Protein backbone atom coordinates (compact mmCIF):
# COMPACT_ATOMS: atom_id res chain seq x y z
CA UNK A 1 0.00 0.00 0.00
CA UNK A 2 1.41 3.37 -1.02
CA UNK A 3 0.44 6.77 -2.33
CA UNK A 4 0.25 6.63 -6.12
CA UNK A 5 -0.91 10.19 -6.80
CA UNK A 6 0.29 13.12 -4.71
CA UNK A 7 -0.92 16.69 -5.12
CA UNK A 8 1.22 19.58 -3.90
CA UNK A 9 -0.39 23.00 -3.69
CA UNK A 10 1.55 25.90 -5.14
CA UNK A 11 0.86 29.55 -4.44
CA UNK A 12 2.67 32.86 -4.50
CA UNK A 13 3.93 32.47 -0.93
CA UNK A 14 7.47 32.19 0.36
CA UNK A 15 7.01 28.63 1.63
CA UNK A 16 6.27 26.94 -1.70
CA UNK A 17 9.87 25.64 -2.08
CA UNK A 18 9.62 23.71 1.21
CA UNK A 19 6.37 22.03 0.13
CA UNK A 20 7.85 21.21 -3.26
CA UNK A 21 10.91 19.64 -1.65
CA UNK A 22 8.71 17.45 0.56
CA UNK A 23 6.45 16.48 -2.34
CA UNK A 24 9.38 15.43 -4.50
CA UNK A 25 10.82 13.31 -1.69
CA UNK A 26 7.50 11.57 -1.08
CA UNK A 27 6.86 11.02 -4.79
CA UNK A 28 10.23 9.29 -5.13
CA UNK A 29 9.67 7.31 -1.95
CA UNK A 30 6.29 5.99 -3.09
CA UNK A 31 6.96 5.94 -6.85
CA UNK A 32 3.98 8.25 -7.17
CA UNK A 33 2.60 10.50 -9.86
CA UNK A 34 3.25 14.07 -8.70
CA UNK A 35 0.72 16.78 -9.51
CA UNK A 36 1.73 20.39 -8.97
CA UNK A 37 -1.34 22.61 -8.73
CA UNK A 38 -0.94 26.38 -8.73
CA UNK A 39 -3.97 27.95 -7.09
CA UNK A 40 -2.85 31.11 -5.38
CA UNK A 41 -5.02 32.66 -2.71
CA UNK A 42 -3.97 35.99 -4.18
CA UNK A 43 -6.14 34.98 -7.12
CA UNK A 44 -8.82 36.74 -5.10
CA UNK A 45 -7.40 39.82 -6.87
CA UNK A 46 -8.98 38.85 -10.15
CA UNK A 47 -12.19 38.88 -12.09
CA UNK A 48 -14.73 41.20 -10.53
CA UNK A 49 -12.20 42.71 -8.11
CA UNK A 50 -9.71 43.60 -10.82
CA UNK A 51 -12.48 45.07 -12.97
CA UNK A 52 -13.06 47.74 -10.35
CA UNK A 53 -9.43 48.83 -10.19
CA UNK A 54 -7.53 51.40 -12.16
CA UNK A 55 -6.76 49.75 -15.53
CA UNK A 56 -3.03 50.26 -15.18
CA UNK A 57 -2.99 48.78 -11.68
CA UNK A 58 -5.23 45.90 -12.75
CA UNK A 59 -2.90 45.10 -15.64
CA UNK A 60 0.10 45.22 -13.32
CA UNK A 61 -1.52 42.84 -10.83
CA UNK A 62 -2.58 40.44 -13.57
CA UNK A 63 0.96 40.44 -14.95
CA UNK A 64 2.34 39.75 -11.47
CA UNK A 65 0.02 36.76 -11.05
CA UNK A 66 1.12 35.37 -14.41
CA UNK A 67 4.80 35.81 -13.53
CA UNK A 68 4.35 34.16 -10.13
CA UNK A 69 2.64 31.15 -11.70
CA UNK A 70 5.40 30.84 -14.31
CA UNK A 71 8.10 31.00 -11.63
CA UNK A 72 6.34 28.31 -9.60
CA UNK A 73 6.04 26.08 -12.65
CA UNK A 74 9.71 26.55 -13.49
CA UNK A 75 10.75 25.55 -9.98
CA UNK A 76 8.45 22.51 -10.15
CA UNK A 77 9.88 21.37 -13.48
CA UNK A 78 13.43 21.87 -12.23
CA UNK A 79 12.80 19.92 -9.02
CA UNK A 80 11.14 16.92 -10.64
CA UNK A 81 13.82 16.79 -13.34
CA UNK A 82 16.63 16.89 -10.78
CA UNK A 83 14.94 14.12 -8.80
CA UNK A 84 14.52 11.93 -11.87
CA UNK A 85 10.73 11.91 -11.59
CA UNK A 86 9.20 11.19 -14.98
CA UNK A 87 5.61 10.85 -13.83
CA UNK A 88 4.67 14.45 -13.05
CA UNK A 89 2.38 17.18 -14.34
CA UNK A 90 1.58 20.83 -13.69
CA UNK A 91 -1.85 22.43 -13.60
CA UNK A 92 -2.84 26.07 -13.34
CA UNK A 93 -5.97 26.72 -11.30
CA UNK A 94 -8.66 29.34 -11.60
CA UNK A 95 -9.65 32.28 -9.47
CA UNK A 96 -11.21 30.24 -6.64
CA UNK A 97 -8.28 28.51 -4.95
CA UNK A 98 -10.41 26.38 -2.62
CA UNK A 99 -12.67 25.11 -5.40
CA UNK A 100 -9.69 24.39 -7.64
CA UNK A 101 -7.91 22.32 -5.01
CA UNK A 102 -11.06 20.45 -4.00
CA UNK A 103 -11.86 19.54 -7.61
CA UNK A 104 -8.41 18.09 -8.17
CA UNK A 105 -8.30 16.44 -4.74
CA UNK A 106 -10.92 13.90 -5.79
CA UNK A 107 -8.37 12.01 -7.85
CA UNK A 108 -5.33 11.88 -5.58
CA UNK A 109 -4.19 9.86 -2.57
CA UNK A 110 -2.56 12.68 -0.62
CA UNK A 111 -2.61 16.48 -0.63
CA UNK A 112 0.31 18.58 0.58
CA UNK A 113 -0.59 22.05 1.81
CA UNK A 114 1.20 24.70 3.81
CA UNK A 115 0.18 26.20 7.13
CA UNK A 116 -0.93 29.80 6.71
CA UNK A 117 1.81 32.23 7.63
CA UNK A 118 0.26 35.18 9.51
CA UNK A 119 3.04 37.40 8.16
CA UNK A 120 1.82 36.84 4.60
CA UNK A 121 -1.29 38.87 3.80
CA UNK A 122 -2.33 38.35 0.21
CA UNK A 123 -6.03 39.02 0.44
CA UNK A 124 -6.96 35.35 0.07
CA UNK A 125 -9.07 33.07 2.23
CA UNK A 126 -7.72 33.03 5.77
CA UNK A 127 -9.36 29.62 6.27
CA UNK A 128 -8.14 28.10 3.00
CA UNK A 129 -6.50 25.09 4.68
CA UNK A 130 -9.47 24.47 6.97
CA UNK A 131 -11.88 24.44 4.02
CA UNK A 132 -9.73 21.96 2.13
CA UNK A 133 -9.18 19.67 5.12
CA UNK A 134 -12.91 19.42 5.87
CA UNK A 135 -14.15 19.05 2.29
CA UNK A 136 -11.42 17.24 0.34
CA UNK A 137 -12.32 13.70 1.33
CA UNK A 138 -8.60 12.96 1.18
CA UNK A 139 -5.78 13.13 3.75
CA UNK A 140 -4.00 16.46 3.94
CA UNK A 141 -0.34 16.64 4.93
CA UNK A 142 0.18 20.11 6.36
CA UNK A 143 3.66 21.60 6.48
CA UNK A 144 4.42 24.28 9.11
CA UNK A 145 5.49 27.64 7.75
CA UNK A 146 8.40 27.73 10.20
CA UNK A 147 11.30 25.29 10.14
CA UNK A 148 12.91 22.83 7.77
CA UNK A 149 12.28 19.11 8.03
CA UNK A 150 15.00 16.71 6.95
CA UNK A 151 12.77 13.73 7.63
CA UNK A 152 9.02 13.29 7.86
CA UNK A 153 7.43 10.19 9.31
CA UNK A 154 10.47 8.43 10.72
CA UNK A 155 9.26 9.13 14.26
CA UNK A 156 5.47 9.47 14.10
CA UNK A 157 2.95 10.35 16.78
CA UNK A 158 -0.63 9.17 16.25
CA UNK A 159 -3.43 10.84 18.22
CA UNK A 160 -6.14 8.32 19.06
CA UNK A 161 -9.55 9.06 20.57
CA UNK A 162 -11.51 6.14 19.09
CA UNK A 163 -13.44 8.45 16.75
CA UNK A 164 -14.34 7.99 13.10
CA UNK A 165 -11.98 10.81 12.13
CA UNK A 166 -9.05 9.29 14.03
CA UNK A 167 -9.68 5.88 12.46
CA UNK A 168 -9.77 7.48 9.02
CA UNK A 169 -6.50 9.32 9.69
CA UNK A 170 -4.74 6.12 10.72
CA UNK A 171 -5.88 4.30 7.61
CA UNK A 172 -4.91 7.24 5.39
CA UNK A 173 -1.47 7.45 7.01
CA UNK A 174 -0.59 3.76 6.67
CA UNK A 175 1.82 4.26 3.73
CA UNK A 176 3.86 6.58 5.96
CA UNK A 177 3.43 4.66 9.20
CA UNK A 178 4.59 1.38 7.67
CA UNK A 179 7.89 3.01 6.71
CA UNK A 180 8.41 4.72 10.07
CA UNK A 181 11.22 3.66 12.40
CA UNK A 182 8.93 4.12 15.38
CA UNK A 183 5.29 5.06 15.87
CA UNK A 184 3.83 6.15 19.17
CA UNK A 185 0.05 6.02 19.48
CA UNK A 186 -1.17 8.28 22.26
CA UNK A 187 -4.51 8.36 24.03
CA UNK A 188 -5.23 11.45 26.12
CA UNK A 189 -7.78 11.28 28.93
CA UNK A 190 -9.15 7.96 27.59
CA UNK A 191 -12.63 6.82 28.60
CA UNK A 192 -13.35 3.13 29.06
CA UNK A 193 -16.68 3.28 27.22
CA UNK A 194 -14.87 4.33 24.02
CA UNK A 195 -11.37 2.95 24.45
CA UNK A 196 -11.98 -0.31 26.34
CA UNK A 197 -10.12 -1.57 29.38
CA UNK A 198 -6.75 -1.15 27.66
CA UNK A 199 -6.90 2.20 25.81
CA UNK A 200 -5.33 1.98 22.38
CA UNK A 201 -4.68 -1.76 22.54
CA UNK A 202 -7.03 -2.75 19.71
CA UNK A 203 -5.88 -0.07 17.29
CA UNK A 204 -2.29 -0.81 18.26
CA UNK A 205 -2.79 -4.44 17.25
CA UNK A 206 -4.44 -3.29 14.03
CA UNK A 207 -1.37 -1.24 13.16
CA UNK A 208 1.00 -4.03 14.15
CA UNK A 209 -0.76 -6.37 11.73
CA UNK A 210 0.11 -3.88 9.00
CA UNK A 211 3.76 -4.09 9.94
CA UNK A 212 3.88 -0.82 11.89
CA UNK A 213 6.41 -0.61 14.73
CA UNK A 214 3.94 0.61 17.30
CA UNK A 215 4.10 1.67 20.94
CA UNK A 216 0.91 2.66 22.79
CA UNK A 217 1.10 5.32 25.48
CA UNK A 218 -1.60 6.90 27.62
CA UNK A 219 -1.59 10.46 28.90
CA UNK A 220 -3.68 12.78 31.03
CA UNK A 221 -4.25 16.45 30.37
CA UNK A 222 -6.44 18.84 32.31
CA UNK A 223 -4.93 22.29 31.97
CA UNK A 224 -3.22 23.08 28.65
CA UNK A 225 -5.70 21.51 26.23
CA UNK A 226 -5.35 18.38 24.12
CA UNK A 227 -3.86 20.19 21.11
CA UNK A 228 -1.08 21.73 23.18
CA UNK A 229 -0.52 18.41 24.93
CA UNK A 230 -0.03 16.71 21.56
CA UNK A 231 2.53 19.30 20.53
CA UNK A 232 4.30 18.95 23.87
CA UNK A 233 4.46 15.17 23.60
CA UNK A 234 5.63 15.40 19.99
CA UNK A 235 8.55 17.49 21.23
CA UNK A 236 9.25 15.03 24.06
CA UNK A 237 9.27 12.07 21.68
CA UNK A 238 11.24 13.81 18.93
CA UNK A 239 8.35 13.21 16.54
CA UNK A 240 8.63 14.45 12.97
CA UNK A 241 4.98 13.77 12.09
CA UNK A 242 1.62 13.94 13.87
CA UNK A 243 -1.31 11.92 12.55
CA UNK A 244 -4.77 12.94 13.74
CA UNK A 245 -8.41 13.27 12.83
CA UNK A 246 -9.70 16.73 11.95
CA UNK A 247 -12.90 17.96 13.54
CA UNK A 248 -15.08 20.81 12.34
CA UNK A 249 -18.25 21.89 10.57
CA UNK A 250 -19.74 24.85 8.77
CA UNK A 251 -22.12 27.08 10.70
CA UNK A 252 -23.74 30.12 9.09
CA UNK A 253 -20.94 30.36 6.50
CA UNK A 254 -18.32 30.17 9.24
CA UNK A 255 -16.04 27.21 9.81
CA UNK A 256 -16.05 25.99 13.38
CA UNK A 257 -13.04 23.79 14.07
CA UNK A 258 -12.65 21.44 17.02
CA UNK A 259 -10.46 22.74 19.82
CA UNK A 260 -7.52 20.39 19.32
CA UNK A 261 -7.72 20.74 15.53
CA UNK A 262 -7.71 24.52 15.76
CA UNK A 263 -4.71 24.49 18.12
CA UNK A 264 -2.73 22.21 15.82
CA UNK A 265 -3.55 24.21 12.69
CA UNK A 266 -2.51 27.44 14.37
CA UNK A 267 0.53 26.23 16.34
CA UNK A 268 1.95 23.14 14.60
CA UNK A 269 5.67 22.66 15.01
CA UNK A 270 6.00 19.49 12.90
CA UNK A 271 4.16 18.29 9.79
CA UNK A 272 0.65 17.01 10.49
CA UNK A 273 -1.46 14.55 8.51
CA UNK A 274 -5.15 15.34 8.99
CA UNK A 275 -8.21 13.42 7.84
CA UNK A 276 -11.86 14.33 8.24
UniProtKB/TrEMBL annotation:
InterPro entries: Universal_stress_UspA, UspA. Residues 157-274 form the UspA domain. Pfam families: Usp. Belongs to the universal stress protein A family. PANTHER family: STRESS RESPONSE PROTEIN NHAX, UNIVERSAL STRESS PROTEIN HP_0031. This is Universal stress protein family protein. It comes from mine drainage metagenome.
Amino acid sequence: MSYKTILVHSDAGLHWPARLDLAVRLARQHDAHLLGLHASSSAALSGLMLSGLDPVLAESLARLRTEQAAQAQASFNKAVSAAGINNAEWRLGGDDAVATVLTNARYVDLLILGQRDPAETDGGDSDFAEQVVLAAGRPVLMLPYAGRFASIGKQALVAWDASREAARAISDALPLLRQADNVKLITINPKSDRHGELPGADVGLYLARHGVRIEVVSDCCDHIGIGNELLSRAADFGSDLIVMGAYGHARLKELVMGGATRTILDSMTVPVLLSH
